[in-house]
Each structure stands twice: as structure tokens, then as C-alpha cells.
Amino acid sequence: MKSYADFEITVTAGDHGRFLLKARGPRGEEGDGELRLPDDDPQIQALLARLRMLDVDEAALVLLGRALFDALFTGAVRDVYVRSRGALGTDEGLRLRLNIPSSAAAAGALPWEFLYDPDRGPLALLDAPIVRHLPQPDRVPVLAAPLPLRVLLTAAQTPPPAEVERELAAVHAALERLGTRVQVTVEPHLTAAVLQERLREGYHIWHFVGHGGFAADGATGRLLFEDEIGDPEPISSLQLGIMLDRANVRLVVLDACSTGQLALDPARSIAPALVRAQIPAVVAMQFQVPEEATRAFAGAFYRALADAFPIDFCVTEGRRAVMNVAGLGRADWGVPVIYTRAEDGRLFEPPVARAAPVVAPGATQSIGAGMQMLGDLIEAGSDVREAVIAFRADFQAAAAQIDILADYKDVHDQLHSLQFHCYNPIITDMRRLPDDDLTWDAMANYDVTLQGIVEDLRRVIERGKLAASELAWVADVSNAEAELAAAIEALDVKRLKQASRLLNRVLTSQPTVINARLNAAARALRLTALVQGMAAVRSWLGGAGYDAARINQFELGVAALATLSTGLTELVNEHDRWQIIDLDLRRIEQFIDQDITELELSWPDINERVAPLYLESSEAWGAALKNDAEKVTAALDSGDQARARQFFRRFRRQAGERFFRVDIDLKRMCDELRKVGDPLASVLKVLTS
């Protein structure tokens, strides 16, 4: 099953211990219901107790699953579910997304993964994966399949250590069978310091084998790492969230018991805390599973993940593999829990053919070698110096402008992080104050991120390449961090609002300004003039009788520089076009739930500007965006507002992902250009010596 339609159920706490349900089908159908917890049903309570001990059989799991199904799918909620299933295409499944806030933690603590539809069977084993969805304000970027997947496989061998050793070996064996599709680094004795060091190396997946649970208060989730001498060291959910924040890990797999269980506040449970720390998806365990189930799950799960299937499909494949080795009557297949903030569950895209890489492999090395050879030729003969010195101004301008361009891109990226990793989540969580004191724990996490952003911006200022007046607003960011820290210390909502106002002042003006300056700096980069000058020098060298091998190496460097120059121009132009489109899509997104008029008025113009971008592309994203655009147009033409909203959101996600990819490509280009700066400077040094 390669695609899913979303069936979303939101649970909210009502009066007198009641829980209210709101269901939304994939085509905009809605229905309300009421969830009654089985607290007063002794038979169900006995089954839940047996499940925690993994002392169940197939009949018991069916009975428990049907009870949970009947509790969740009541009234109009059930009607929407039946209609949604009936409308599925032949290649679609129905993804059940459960949105359960901290105020409804008692409902979230139930093992919904064992839901049993009396007409179809256990949903988690069929085409209806069950996902604990935790929406976050940040967009989740989908990465092109970065095969091999880089997996950091870790363990903490706390008592009983033999059990951990077996689990670690089982997972490692499953990963090794995937061959070149994964690259595994193993840390069998994980400490906090080791994890911090390893995360700097860049991994797609962190897999932890060990023990977990709750602190003595019964409310704070934690994992057990090792300390320097091998004794257990508890690491809280908040500390883990801080360590993993901005680490670019796409997926965390916690092979430790109780990591999937909810505390009274999910933010203090391990898996939800990591999702709040911007991890796109977490697979955790409600209970402990035996070794054979671990091996079966890991093998099937990672195979599907390496093939770029959605995370929920990967878990379903893992569940089925467990069922095949342990049997349907064992509860092992229902132990994994998925928490995610990825809307469509897709963490990686399958590999696609690109017309040409943005920067050819080895381009900067060729440029560096070519410039080094030019320097050698200049030192070898004064006539070469005379031939090159006419282009000294181009060398000087290019070398200086490269540094300026790279610094503008650094500032651009920091403003992006400020928006999505600090300001947006602060505004979202601030609504829970003053009623929820635990919100201050999340604010402390955002403060750590904000401190890092301030430090990075100050480093740009210290380099002195950009005018101080252009970065005067960094003082506002620094003041906002000080206000945020003071607000957290004093639990002062007023100071927290002042911090958010300072950040908002920066974010309403600076991103557009910096983006304009970034593009201006890229266009001012005189690579084209430099390439033309170096081509003229190359022609002169050929006629002057210099060594052919040296000339050839210089020629390769000139060709690589020309490719880099062309790629930069194309990328800046594409980035500009997506930037304008992204601003319009954001504007529509703000109002679409309340009023569709803005979409109706703006869509023809937006589609006209986007169409050339997706029609020019032969990649998968182009076809997908074209398909979504056509569906938005058809829904608007027919007056179907629910479907217009649904398809616009899909179009918005696809367009946002493409803009993000272009943004990442531009950052890589700036990083490559920064490497070119040193060879250019070395030629300048030779010319002026």
C-alpha cells in the first residue's frame, strides 16, 4: 500500500470525565461523537491488565480490540468511517490519525493499536495504520532518498544487560541484511556525551536499545543511558528533546519498554517529547517484546523505509513480520506505537533522476586544482602574470562577493530557524499559559535553540563581511532571548509576550529584506566575467607553448567554474520564483479554514505562476504538483469547498517541499562557493606578491 487517505479523530476533554470526538474524513466529511472510557467495565480492565503482562491470546485480543473500536467509533464518527472506507481507491489505505492532547491523556493511554473492526479484523495489520499525530507549526521537509540510510544504532547495557545485548544483536543482524542500503554505526555503551558527539556527525535515524520507563513521580518519561563507569544514568524526556533539537534526525526508534506509554502529560512522555523537539517521527514501544519479534520487526521495517515508503506503512510491514513469527494470538505485533508530525507519513522520497546535479561531484576540487595550477604558472613565468593581471579586478570582486553571499545565506537560514524552531512553537504553546505549568519546560527548550541562533548571528557579525547597519536587528533577537530567559526564570507570562513581540518585529521585516540582499549578492557575483577572462588566459597559454598537462588541469578548473556559475544563476532565479509563490500560499493558508474566498480569488494567478515550474520538471514532484493543482481547480470550479480546502493543503505541502529543496540546494551552492574563495584568494596573493 503506497498511499493513504487520512481519517482524523480529535479527542478533547469534556465535562464530568467525558471525552468528545470529532472525526474528519479524507474528503471533508465530518462527524461528532463521545468516547466513554472502559473504566467501569471489569472485563475490559482485566484484559488491559493481561495485555500489560503480555498474557493474552487471539480471543482476548479480539475482544479487547472490538471494545476499543466500539468506544471510538460511535454515532456520526462511525458513519464517517464507513463512508470513508467505501470511497477508497484500489491503491489507497485509510490512515487513522489520532490527535489526543495532554488534557485527554487518559484516552491517549489506551492501546488503540489493537483496534479490531468486526467487519475486517485488526486494523493495524491491514491497510489502516494507526498513528498518534502530534501536529507542530514547523513544516516537515521530505528528503530525497539519501541511500544509504545512516543509522546510529545504540544500546545502554543497564541491568539486565544480557537482555539488551540480545536485542542489539538482533537489530544489527536485521540491518546488516539490507546491505548497501544502510550504513550502520554501533555504540554498544551509550552515554549522554557519546550521543551528543555522534549527533554532530549527521544521522538519518537513531535507534536505541535499552531500558526506559518513568521517574518516581510516575509522570516523567526517561531512558536509561550509561555513565562514565557503566552505571545507569536516567535521561529525562526534556533532556533528550534538547539534545536532539536541530540535530536533523528524521526518525527515532526506541526499542525500550514503556517509551510509547503516555504520562498524564504527553509532553513529559519520551516519544511525544521528541516529536515536540522537531523529530518528524518516533516509533516507540508500549511494552517489552521478545528477541525474535525485535528481529522480525526491524528487518521488515527498515527494508520498507529504505524503499522510501511512508513511516506508517513501514510499521505495518514490521507488525506483519512479527505476526508471522509470533502468531496473531501474541500481542507482540501491537506493541510498537507511531508518533509523528509528518502530515503524509513520508520521511524520505524515492530516488529520482535529475537532469543535472546543482554542483557536479568534485567541481570545487577541480576549481581548486585549476587555480593552484594557474598560480604555479604565474610563478613560473612573468608573461603568464601579465596575461592574468588584466583580470585581477574580477578575482578580487569574486573572492569578496563569495564571502558576502555565504554570510547572507547563513543569516537567511537563521531567520528560518527563528521562525519555525522558536517563534511559531512559542506562540502555539503560549496559549496554554497560565493554566499549564509544564509549558515552561517547553519554553526552556526553545530558549536553548534561541541562544544558538543568537550565537550564530553574532559570528556572522564578527566576520565583518556584511554592513553592521544591515544586522542591527540582531540586537532585538538578543533582547528577545534575554526576555525569554527571564520569563522562564520568573514564570512571567507578560515578559514572555514581550519576547514574542520582539521576535515578531524581526520576522515581519527581515526575511524579505535578507532574501532580496541574498539574491542581489548572487547576481553581483562576477563569476561569468571571471570565467570569460580565464578562458582567454587558457587560449593564450595554448599558443605560448606551456606544458599541455598543466594547461589541461587549468582548463578543467575553468570548465567547473563555468558550470558553477551557470548553476548559481539558474538556482537563484528558481529560488526567487518559489519565494514569491510561497508568500502567496502562506497568505491563503492563514484564512482558508474560515473563508475560502481568498483561495478562489488568488488561485488562477498562483496556478499560472506555478505551472511553468512543474511543467518544466520531469521529476516526480512536478507530476505530483500538477495533479494536485488540477484537483484544486476542479474543486473550485464545481463549488466543492471541502475538497478545495483538502486539495489546496496537499498542493501547499507539495509546493512547500519543493521550495525547501531549492532552498537547501542554494545553501549547498553557497557552501561550495565558499570553498572556491580560498583558491581565488591564493591566485590573488600570487598576483600581488
Characterization of the model:
With 689 residues, this protein is α/β, with parallel strands linked by helices. The protein has three domains: 3-133, no CATH class; 143-349, Rossmann fold (3-Layer(aba) Sandwich), CATH 3.40.50.1460; 363-688, no CATH class. It has 22 helices and 18 strands. The strands form four sheets. Strands 3-2-1-4-7-17-16-15-11-9-10 form an eleven-stranded mixed β-sheet, with helices on both faces. A three-stranded antiparallel β-sheet has the order 12-13-14. Strands 5-6 form a two-stranded antiparallel ribbon. Strand 12 (212-214) and strand 13 (221-226) form a beta hairpin. Helix 5 runs parallel beside helix 9 (291-306), helix 11 runs parallel beside helix 22 (641-688) and helix 13 packs antiparallel against helix 17. The longest helix is centred in the C-terminal third of the chain and has 48 residues, at 641-688. The model is unreliable at 262-267 and 351-358 (pLDDT under 50).
